[in-house]
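Posted in: Structural Biology > Protein-Ligand Complexes

Title: Requesting predicted complex, heme C in pocket

I'd be grateful if someone could produce the 3D structure tokens for the following input. Sequence and ligand are given below.
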Amino acid sequence: MKQNLTLLLILLFVGVAFFINHSHSQRSLSHSTIKQSSPQTPITSNDNYPLQSVNYLETYIEDIINHGSSQNLGFAYGDMEGGFADKEAAKKITAYVITLSGKQPTHPEWVKEGRTFYISNCGGCHGENGKGIHGTFPDLTRKTLLGIARRLND
Ligand code: HEC
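-- Reply #1 --
Done. Output follows.
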């Protein structure tokens, strides 16, 4: 009788250990799947809009917020990672960033909220006023952003 109880306890222990191990490996599997499904996508160019249009600038900025910027623009910090803001906030931040160079965004109604998101998600590097830090973080108030200027010169 005592032996049976010991056997039962051992079986129970092995079962629990197996269950924990199994759910753990499943979790790490789904984790790596998520990571693989969001690779750093390159900046997409948009042939529908002329390079100097606000529409093009909006796709450029939104794309950088979502996917980052690895354009070797010449800043000591190096690359900018994507995802400092979520996709919804990215649209609003974009509207605000457009105004930094004195342009009128497609959705002016997003500017106010976009500014708030900008200050908490981007201001740490690009500065609250958008002027960046010379040599380290790009100035977003330039009339033509560096990545756009480079495409214009191509
Ligand atoms: C950790 C610092 C950091 C944060 C936070 C950051 N950036 Fe950047 N950003 C950079 C760096 C560095 C570059 C230059 C990268 C390169 O060389 O491609 C850059 C490049 C850019 C460019 C391209 C500039 C040009 O002249 O073409 C834009 C636009 C931009 N960032 C917007 C944003 C916005 C909007 C946010 C907030 C959602 C943000 N960044 C958050 C560091 C940062």
